[in-house]
Design a protein that fits this description.
Blueprint: H1 2-17, H2 20-29, H3 43-47, E1 66-68, H4 69-74, H5 80-91, E2 96-98, H6 99-109, H7 111-116, H8 146-156, H9 174-188, H10 200-213, H11 221-233, H12 237-253, H13 260-270, H14 274-277, H15 281-298, H16 307-323, H17 327-339, H18 345-364, H19 374-397, H20 402-413, H21 421-431, H22 436-445, H23 454-465, H24 477-488, H25 491-498, H26 501-516, H27 530-543, H28 547-557, H29 563-568, H30 574-583, H31 589-600, H32 608-624, H33 628-648, E3 655-656, E4 677-682, E5 690-699, E6 702-711, E7 723-730, E8 740-748, H34 756-766, H35 770-783, E9 788-793, E10 796-801, E11 804-810, H36 856-869, H37 874-887, H38 890-902, H39 909-920, H40 924-934, H41 942-945, H42 957-971, H43 975-983, H44 996-1009, H45 1013-1023, H46 1029-1043, H47 1057-1063
Parallel strand pairs: 3-6
Antiparallel strand pairs: 1-2, 4-5, 5-6, 7-8, 9-10, 10-11
Helix pairs in contact: 1-9, 1-10, 10-11, 11-12, 12-13, 13-15, 15-16, 16-18, 17-18, 18-19, 19-20, 20-21, 20-22, 21-22, 22-24, 23-24, 26-27, 27-28, 30-33, 31-32, 31-33, 32-33, 34-35, 36-37, 37-38, 38-39, 39-40, 40-42, 42-43, 44-45
């Protein structure tokens, strides 16, 4: 264990103390041999400790150079801290200390020594936070070079980095090295991420041993912070809290860079456990915000050259606040920064300007000017004015920092600065020639939406590529050009422009130059990895028609193309692009080029007969070309053209789908567009060998109905469920073709894995095949009862996977779905929502729970047991009340509904059902109160629990209540009731064409109420032809009254007319049948 402790002292403290590049040097200079020479305890004490863990055998490293403790103590020029450290080592029996360890400890404790040796500490604070001269620092008047900026960045993120080159680690245990690196990542990361549980126990033991063994470093802030992390991970939260507080206090008294206060204080805010356990984004953001605020307000120490890097850290927080739409927190942050006068003016101005600009665009939005509401222009102008003033002030303070000028490029775009975008771009690169945010802002100012063009954007990028500054980041302007064009320019225009050979040649020149001139500039800079750049080069060449160059690149890349580069270049299918390049480079390139032209031509340019001829030609070429990628591309073209030609000729379009076409699917798993309206019917009687599809595909504004069978060439062995191909329809172009028909192959395995049925059900649900979706969901529930859960409630059901929302369906989508499947059990919150629909478990209930369609008495018995087990379970109380409601015991139902509400049941169903109970008891006034609550358009839970059908209509109980209120508004003989309804805010119920008779009935009722019985009778006669036979019987009494010239009124003991209509079919027979079939469209 001694060797492990010693190795950890060397590796952990120094590795975490130094910057990111330091970690790489440790690995290069370290030997994976177990043991070390850091501590100097006697062998007797070492024997008392348990043996260290066995490590993998490795070559022995040369012995480390040792220094005599006695000779060091003879020197008189060491400060007290160094003398105390040496004295502690000698007191514990040590006679020697490793030279590298002594050098590091001395550089940390003795500033003068570091200066004398010519190794000035990069983390030495230049001035304190309380120094008023911070407002007027002495900035350098020279431009910042790339190398200098990178060195400053490394210094800002490191401690003692200048000393690292002199350190040698001869004996470091590989296992200790791994743990030290993991701790370093946790300390240096912006957000702490959880690590493997088995990592922490040994780590905590070794850290405690280090703290005990080395008195000189037992109060080191980073050691205390690491102890806090390890203690929290081992669920010793009280110890963790103590360590975090001590670390925060010691940090303010030390010469560590103050940026570590963000991490240390953040852990203290989290109080230990949540730093590794709670990964809730909102909570982490709040902790991050408090940590950065603490750093700026109480422990900000940075010299003038570090102000840029401090702004980078603050800007990361501002961006995170923006992405999580925490606008109030962002505004509060700006107020806090404005009040901190000890912060440098440049930093304050940049932060205030950045926040103001974010808030301005929050009000304006990203659309065109005519889409911005008039009331939003005023706050946009106000915030833009503040941003312009702050950025201009920052530029006046220090023109050599390019951040302010780069921000003013975007300010000039909106007309809030007198100078042009070109002016501020030149000012920005005068401070740093490769400050790439300035290039990005300038390119954005040239997009067509802002009055520019793609040609201007390319000319700007080409100008800077031609400078060939491969010693800088300037050539990356070409990747910025591609990214911005694809993001902000019409797809057809961008694809056409990227196909030009001159664009491809310029991109190849830029990416080739960067590959041949690699940079090593520290951390957090643009990617210069060869594979990333090679992928960009190859894709640009393939799109620009440089096929031979592209083929060479594809050969070199193989299947290892960089995913980030493919995403930047918006590559839909890497396999198709590669196959096309090889086909156009083959000996049949001319024929393949003609096929490509036919495949990408519009319907007006090519006839179905021509496509049919090309199909035969594709088959012939597939026999003649040897390259497999080219053959796959030809097969794809052939099948696509064959499908289109057969469909156009009115033939039965059957598309075979075999394993070799698995690359057909779009890589991004294309989402359904609003224009796509598709349905799937699945035949699972035998095996899933056929899938009938009926899809509405948009093509240049025209709609086509496509019907075909997807045939599986093999038996799946499991009713087709293990092998499932999910069809997808997308408006995405296929190399310029009118539309794409693609398929995503999900699984091809006879043994299902966790989550497969859930995903299949989710895709089936997306295709509106709710029956299949429910079947797959139920199968997943049975396979993974602790992960999959479904929720059935009045009028809808929801599916969750590991408590994450999967999908939701309203009642119209699930009509009849319960007839076939056994999934119709209600949902319970018992077990924190983990209990599935198919298996609500009660210890005293030994048989399966009753389905929703069961009798009321059976459900009443079941939910009575569940509610008695946990009287505070609001869902159990609600379902118990609902069961009583079904049996007609409205008194008991009212009591139980109120209990559920008292227990926290906030869904509006409870209000609607309470109103229904009072209505059936004849208490119209009380019913009206609950209907108004249920239908309240401002109800806080309605939009959260249930989505809107449109701007006015809700689906579910609030809509049911609205229907009843609308009836009362037209038909109630009580004037006060109508007045009260008109005062309330509720969603207006919508009616489909087949329920238009309801509107006529409203008119007739209103006429009868005002005494015009003759007209009311005429209208009622006409509406009888529109309603069902069951509803006609209910209306006979109404007509009889009107024919005699009397208003139809229900007596105090009778049910209202709408209840009689609803009861013409049992109201509580099933959730999708709350109203008669003729009323299905209004809820």
């Amino acid at each position: 264990m001694k060797n492990a402790f010693r190795g950890f002292v060397v590796c952990f403290l120094l590795l975490m103390t130094f910057g990111c590049d330091s970690r790489e040097s440790v690995v290069k200079k370290s030997s994976p041999q177990q043991g070390g020479a850091t501590a100097t305890k006697s062998s007797d004490s070492d024997q008392k400790k348990p043996p260290a863990k066995k490590a993998a055998p490795a070559k022995k490293a040369p012995p480390a150079k040792m220094l005599s403790v006695d000779r060091l103590m003879e020197r008189k020029d060491f400060p007290k801290e160094i003398v105390d450290m040496l004295h502690n080592i000698k007191t514990k029996g040590g006679s020697e200390i490793k030279e590298s360890v002594f050098f590091t400890m001395r550089s940390r404790l003795d500033v003068n020594y570091a200066v004398q040796e010519g190794k000035e500490r990069s983390w030495k604070p230049v001035r304190s936070a309380t120094d008023p001269s911070n407002d007027e620092p002495e900035y350098s008047a020279k431009p910042v070079g790339t190398d200098e900026f990178c060195q400053q960045l490394v210094k800002f993120h490191g401690v003692g980095i200048d000393h690292f080159a002199t350190l040698t680690f001869d004996n470091v245990d590989a296992e200790v090295q791994q743990r030290a690196e993991q701790l370093f990542r946790n300390i240096n990361a912006t957000n702490i991420s959880p690590v493997e549980p088995e990592f922490w126990p040994d780590t905590l033991a070794e850290l405690i041993a280090i703290e005990t063994e080395f008195d000189g470093i037992s109060e080191d802030p980073l050691l205390l912070y690491a102890l806090g992390l390890a203690s929290a991970a081992n669920r010793k939260f009280k110890d963790a809290s103590v360590y975090f507080r001590k670390s925060a206090n010691r940090l303010r008294q030390s010469n560590y860079p103050s940026r570590f206060a963000v991490k240390v204080h953040g852990a203290n805010v989290r109080n230990g456990p949540k730093c590794l356990i709670d990964e809730t984004p909102g909570r982490n953001l709040a902790q991050y915000y408090l940590s950065v605020l603490y750093w700026l307000k109480h422990d900000f120490r940075a010299g003038p050259e570090d102000h840029r890097n401090a702004y980078r850290m603050v800007n990361e927080l501002i961006n995170e606040l923006k992405w999580q739409r925490e606008w109030d927190l962002m505004t509060e942050f700006m107020r806090e920064i404005s009040s901190e006068t000890h912060l440098p003016v440049w930093l304050r101005s940049m932060c205030k300007g950045r926040i103001s600009n974010r808030l301005a665009w929050r009000w304006r939005g990203s659309g065109f000017a005519h889409t911005v509401p008039k009331e939003n222009w005023k706050p946009f102008e106000q915030y833009q004015k503040i941003a312009a003033e702050e950025f201009e002030r920052a530029y006046e303070i220090n023109p050599m920092f390019p951040e302010s000028a780069a921000e003013l490029i975007r300010i000039s775009m909106t007309g809030h600065n007198e100078e042009s975008e070109d002016y501020w771009f030149e000012k920005a690169i005068a401070g740093q020639i490769d400050y790439m945010p300035a290039y990005e802002a300038k390119l954005f100012s040239l997009v067509p939406q802002w009055g520019g063009s793609v040609k201007e954007m390319f000319e700007f990028a080409k100008t800077h590529v031609d400078k060939e500054r491969y010693d800088t980041q300037v050539p990356t302007v070409m990747s910025l050009f591609y990214d911005i064009v694809f993001r902000y320019v019409n797809q057809g225009l961008s694809e056409t422009f990227m196909a030009k050979p001159e664009v491809a040649k310029c991109a190849v020149k830029a990416f080739d130059g960067m590959i041949n001139h690699p940079l090593d500039q520290g951390i957090n800079l643009a990617k210069r990895e060869e594979n990333y750049l090679l992928t960009l080069k190859v894709i640009a060449a393939a799109r620009g028609g440089l096929h031979e160059l592209a083929c060479d690149g594809f050969e070199q890349l193989g299947d290892d193309a960089d995913i980030a580069a493919l995403a930047l270049m918006r590559v839909g299918s890497y396999g198709l692009l590669r196959g096309k390049a090889f086909a156009l480079c083959s000996e049949k390139a001319e024929e393949c080029q003609k096929i490509q032209e036919i495949a990408t031509a519009s319907e007006e340019e090519v006839t179905a007969e021509q496509k049919s001829e090309i199909v035969d030609q594709c088959s012939e070429l597939m026999e003649q070309i040897e390259n497999e990628y080219a053959v796959n591309w030809l097969r794809t073209i052939r099948d696509k053209l064959q499908f289109e030609s057969e469909f156009a000729l009115g033939m039965s379009a059957i598309m075979p789908f075999d394993e070799s076409l698995s690359f057909w699917a779009c890589d991004d798993r294309s989402q359904f567009t609003r224009e796509s309206n598709s349905s799937v019917s699945i035949d699972t009687v035998d095996s899933l060998k056929h899938m009938s599809l009926r899809s509405l595909v948009n093509s240049k504004g025209k709609s086509k109905v496509i019907e075909f069978d997807l045939k599986f060439p093999y038996d799946t062995g499991h009713k087709g469920l293990a092998t499932h191909f999910t069809p997808s329809v997308t408006a995405m172009n296929f190399d310029g073709a009118p539309f794409t028909f693609g398929f995503n192959r999900l699984y091809r395995t006879k043994k299902t894995k966790s989550g497969h049925f859930r995903e299949i059900g989710q895709f089936s649900f997306g295709w509106r095949d709710t029956r299949a979706a429910i079947y797959y969901f139920e199968t997943e529930v049975k396979n993974e009862p602790n992960q999959m859960r479904l929720r059935i409630a009045p009028g809808y059901f929801e599916a969750y996977w590991n408590d994450r929302f999967v999908c939701r369906s309203t009642s119209k989508d699930i009509v009849g779905a319960w007839d076939t499947f056994e999934i119709c059990q209600p949902w319970s919150r018992k077990g924190r929502g983990k209990v599935s629909v198919s298996g609500i478990r009660l210890e005293s209930w030994n048989v399966p729970p009753p389905p929703i369609r069961a009798g009321g008495q059976e459900l009443l018995k079941y939910y009575k047991i569940e509610s008695e087990e946990d009287p505070t379970d609001r869902w159990a109380s609600f379902w118990y009340a609902h069961a009583a409601h079904m049996t007609g015991d409205t008194e008991k139902a009212i009591e139980l509904y109120l209990t559920a509400i008292e227990n926290g049941f906030a869904e509006p169903e409870a209000a609607f059902f309470l109103g229904d109970c009072h209505d059936r008891q004849g208490d119209a006034a009380e019913a009206l109160q609950w209907y108004l609550i249920a239908a309240d358009g401002d109800h806080e839970d309605i939009t959260r629990m249930f989505g809107r059908a449109d701007s006015q209509n809700y689906v579910n109980s609030c809509h049911w209540a609205s229907s009843r209120l609308e009836w009362l508004k037209y038909c109630s003989p009580d004037e006060s009731v109508r007045a009260k309804i008109e005062e309330g805010k509720f969603c207006r119920a919508g009616y489909e064409d087949r329920q238009i008779w309801i509107v006529d009935l409203f008119k007739a009722m209103e006429m009868a109420r005002t005494g015009d019985f003759e007209t009311a009778s005429d209208v009622a006669e006409s509406l009888l032809s529109k309603c069902s036979e069951q509803d006609k019987k209910v209306l006979e009494a109404v007509l009889a009254a009107w024919r005699s010239g009397e208003e139809y009124r229900w007596s105090e003991g009778d049910s209202p007319l709408y209840l009689e209509l609803e009861n013409s079919i049992p109201f509580f027979r099933c959730f999708e049948d709350y109203l008669p079939k003729s009323w299905n469209g209004i809820y």
